[in-house]
Amino acid sequence: MEKQTEMIRVQNLKKSFGKVEVLKDVTLQVGKGEVVVLIGASGSGKSTLIRCINFLEIKDGGEIYIEGKSIDPKKDDLTKVRQKVGMVFQHFNLFPHKTVLENIMEAPLIAKKADKEATKQEALRLLQKVGLSEKADVYPASLSGGQKQRVAIARSLAMKPEIMLFDEPTSALDPELVGEVLETMKQLAQEGMTMIIVTHEMGFAKEVADWVAFMNQGKIIEMARPQEIFNNPKEERTREFLNRVL
Ligand code: ADP
Ligand code: MG
């Protein structure tokens, strides 16, 4: 098999908060265009792991390579790293006093000092991509939760990231709004975006993930093809978790 371009490599990652060791020894590799769905019980360290990959949390030990380069939070420009590694959270935090279009244009205009007209055209293209062209000039307050989350995804894409991290992007949504956000992520996956997605949507994991990683008490204890994880998990703890959630 041809060797894939490595986009993310996490090696022996450790992270504690005070005395609590939250990430014990996490190793994970993600190739270009791969979708990894990260599952596991609440408190197992999923958010901390992806926040470390985006350097919102700073690791205590181990290495994080982005596109083959080990990132040293003390020396490297983390703003640049975060442009490459976009992140979407459970709560969308759109700027309430800016229109949808202005929300999407904000970061590229500030961070990249980009041309305003070009940025606007790109923002409109992204809005079309997430199916919200008609909402360009409205304020976030008038959007549904699902629409807000799709704007948040477009806003993150405006920085032209190579990698997207999602932390339970549908957990705060009413059930009937979950599908449209999953559909947007599925479309991104089909376009070849490299993604790590924390979600409890097992149907989505089955359909879209290249790999499913099961996290338990600060470690990834099993990572396999979705079919393997869901039909034939190797670890007893994976089986127990899936029995509880499926
Ligand atoms: P998950 O996303 O899988 O639910 P988290 O990564 O959010 O897990 O949390 C893992 C553990 O780390 C939990 O016990 C949580 O209380 C703790 N934790 C997370 N963030 C912090 C923080 N900023 N300060 C102290 N403890 C934290
Ligand atoms: Mg979490």
From TrEMBL:
CDD domains recorded: ABC_HisP_GlnQ (cd03262)
Membrane topology: Peripheral membrane protein
Domain of life: Bacteria
MF (Gene Ontology): ABC-type amino acid transporter activity; ATP binding; ATP hydrolysis activity
The name this protein goes by in its record: Polar amino acid ABC transporter ATP-binding protein
GO cellular component: plasma membrane
Pfam families tied to this protein: ABC_tran (PF00005)
Chief localisation class: membrane
Keyword Repeat among UniProt keywords: no
Domain ABC transporter, first and last residues per copy: 8-242
Keyword Membrane: yes
UniProt record similarity statement: Belongs to the ABC transporter superfamily.
Keywords, sorted A to Z: Amino-acid transport, ATP-binding, Cell membrane, Membrane, Nucleotide-binding, Transport
Signal peptide (residue range): none
SUPFAM superfamilies linked to this entry: P-loop containing nucleoside triphosphate hydrolases
Location(s) in or outside the cell: Cell membrane
